[in-house]
Amino acid sequence: MYVIQAEVAAQEAERQQGLMFREKMGPNEGMIFLFDAPAGVCMWMKNTLLPLSVAFIDENGIIVNIEDMKPQTTDSHCARKPVRYALEMNQEWFKRKNIKPGSVIGGLPRTK
Fold this sequence. Notes:
- The protein is built from 2 helices and 7 strands.
- The chain is mostly beta strands.
- The chain has a 5-stranded mixed beta sheet with strand order 1-2-7-4-5.
C-alpha cells in the first residue's frame, strides 16, 4: 500500500491548469483529475516542466492504462476507455511501485 498526496483538480479551470509551471514535486505527490462522469479523456504537457506518468482510472478505481508524458509537449495521451479519474505522478512512479493496468486505487475523491 502506498500513500499518495494528490491535489484534486475537480473544476474545469483546475483541470486546465493541472501541474503547469511546477518545478518540483515530492516523491509521493501528484494530482488527481476528477471528471463528473466517465468520459474519453486525453492529457497533454503544454507548459508542464516535469516529466510525468498518468494513470487513467475508471469509476471503480481500476487503472485502465498508464502513459509516460514528456515535458512541454502537446502530444495527446488518452484513456483507452471512458474514465472518471486521471492521476499524474512523477514519471516512472507507477513502474517503480509495480502498479500496472488492472491495479486498484483506493480512497479516490467523489463528486458531490
